[in-house]
Amino acid sequence: MAATAKTTTQKALLVTSINSPLTLSTTHPIPTPKPTQLLLRVTLTGLNHHDQKIRDRGLWFANSLPTPLGTDIVGYVERVGSAVTQFAPGDHVFTYGNLFEEGHVSNGLQEFAIADAAYTARVPEGYTEEEVASVPVNFAAAYTALFDPEGGLGVPTPGSSDDVDEFGRRALLKEETILIVGGGSNCGRYLVQLASISGFGKIVVLGGNEDELKGFGATHVLDRHGDYDTVVRPRIAAAVGGDLLYAVDAVNMPDTLYVTINALSEERKGMVARLLPSGPHATEKVVKEEGSYTVVDTTGVPQFRKVGVKMWVHISEFLEERRVKTLGFELVDGVGLDAERVNEVLDGLRDGKRSGQALVRVAE
């Protein structure tokens, strides 16, 4: 029998030890929302590569188990905190669960989860749960990489009247080029859409489907294959020119980040926002002088970003106005917190049999 918000315990799939399968708990506590929070009855959650790494490697939480997984969450509001005025019980919403909330109460592989009201939106008319569940994590990473003044490039957010960006550079984006490396990734595809909305004059993308990306607003889509020195680097240089200030890398690890760094301006101090911040980047193949460029590490958890609240306003606006297109998704068969089924999903992410996010229906 499913729990109700009036009971004190619920079912949850938990990481209880590192590199071990998730296990089902039937006595996991139902959390209580703080004044600015909501209690959601979870219907759908998305599992991404970081979820697999939490289970198998103890990413972030090796010393604070047990924890559920799942940060893309859709559900219905069961209870609102005392300071919440914009939502009411029964509202159909989606949210980005805060992985780092004390007690791991904001993850989706449980019957009830906490959501921060400021980082939650109603499911827009005309969208399915599956469509909106595919948005938060990847959209947040892309939005942060472009707009956050500390964890991204710091360009003005859409609709801003500022004519100078957070780094003192003129924000005449129609005269600027942006390079997006990893156009085949979900983050890369959202990056292209947001760069187009922002008004960049030239949007150069390395990798991905040319027709799709140009439909999102890319002006140039480049083949990522070939020898770097003789093929790929000249190909990028021909597209971006010699004065590139803005670049986002959605796919390269530290040892190959030079692909993006080397495309930056020879004259001005360019910047790369990287979405895989796993240690210092290798410099052996970087042709730029140290100090002539900046690399910033992007983490997309909106609760920790200066642009986080504005991002959730824009998610609602862009979806309702169809300015952003949701991406494809894979819905796992079945309903409910089935440990075997969900562990198979995570195994597939680990073994490369699943290329991206998988949606798990927790309840109808």
TrEMBL record:
Gene3D superfamilies per record: Medium-chain alcohol dehydrogenases, catalytic domain, NAD(P)-binding Rossmann-like Domain
One Pfam family, short name: ADH_N
Oxidoreductase listed as a keyword: yes
GO terms for MF: oxidoreductase activity, acting on NAD(P)H
Enoyl reductase (ER) domain mapped to chain residues: 17-360
Keywords from the named record: Oxidoreductase
Organism superkingdom: Eukaryota
SMART domains, per the entry: PKS_ER
Matching InterPro entries: ADH-like_N (IPR013154), ER (IPR020843), GroES-like_sf (IPR011032), NAD(P)-bd_dom_sf (IPR036291), Trans-enoyl_RdTase-like (IPR047122)
Statement: the UniProt record of this protein carries the keyword Oxidoreductase: yes
Family matches, as PANTHER family: HYPOTHETICAL OXIDOREDUCTASE (EUROFUNG), ZINC-TYPE ALCOHOL DEHYDROGENASE-LIKE PROTEIN C2E1P3.01
Family: Belongs to the zinc-containing alcohol dehydrogenase family.
Description of how the protein assembles with itself and partners: Monomer.
The protein's name: GroES-like protein
